[in-house]
């Protein structure tokens, strides 16, 4: 059974919007794909048997120009090899950090009409995900390493 974390809930989105909007942010993305993409009935790709990974590539291709226009960039990408601490069997098919010049840029992106159309590919592709807003300034706060 999956936990169905694909889109933000209203309370989560409101909490995001309440944070400062004028500082650089990093968004940690952890994504697990569906075996087969689940497009809504009536979508041109519904019933074509695309994998979740293929549908996510459509999402990237269609949303990428909007992401770049608002000043976004990928600052880190990796492939999961093994879980050292965490639930047994948990896996992530895509892991990356997207940087935005500020939270306002992220909000501009997710409300853009082109992006809102592209996100249908993400919704079809994703079994579950985590999207975690982080400060882009790692020197803030205390650290346990040095």
Describe this structure in words.
This protein has 146 residues and is α+β, with helices and mostly antiparallel strands. It has one domain: Alpha-Beta Plaits (2-Layer Sandwich). It is built from 4 helices and 4 strands. The chain has helices spanning 10-18, 52-69, 103-111, 113-125; strands at residues 25-33, 73-78, 94-100, 126-135. Strands 2-3-1-4 form a 4-stranded antiparallel beta sheet. Helix 2 (52-69) packs antiparallel against helix 4. It is globular. The model has no long low-confidence stretch (mean pLDDT 91).
Helix count, per DSSP? 4
Average pLDDT: 91
Order the strands across the largest sheet as they lie in space. Answer: 2-3-1-4
CATH class: Alpha Beta
Low-confidence stretches: none
Strand content: 15-25%
CATH architecture: 2-Layer Sandwich
Quantity of strands, as a count: 4
The span between the termini is 41 Å
Topology of this structure?
Elements: H1 10-18, E1 25-33, H2 52-69, E2 73-78, E3 94-100, H3 103-111, H4 113-125, E4 126-135
Antiparallel strand pairs: 1-3, 1-4, 2-3
Helix pairs in contact: 2-4
């Amino acid at each position: 059974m999956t936990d169905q974390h694909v889109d933000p809930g209203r309370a989560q989105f409101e909490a995001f919007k309440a944070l400062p909007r004028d500082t650089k942010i990093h968004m940690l993305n952890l994504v697990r794909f569906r075996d087969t993409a689940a497009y809504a009935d009536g979508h041109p790709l519904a019933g074509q048997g695309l994998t979740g990974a293929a549908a996510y590539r459509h999402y990237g291709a269609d949303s990428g120009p909007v992401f770049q226009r608002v000043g976004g960039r990928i600052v880190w990408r990796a492939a999961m090899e093994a879980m050292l601490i965490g639930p047994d069997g948990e896996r992530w098919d895509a892991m990356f950090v997207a940087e935005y010049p500020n939270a306002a840029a992220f909000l501009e992106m997710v409300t853009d009409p082109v992006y809102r159309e592209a996100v249908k590919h993400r919704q079809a592709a994703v079994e579950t995900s985590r999207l975690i807003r982080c400060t882009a300034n790692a020197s803030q706060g205390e650290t346990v390493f040095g």
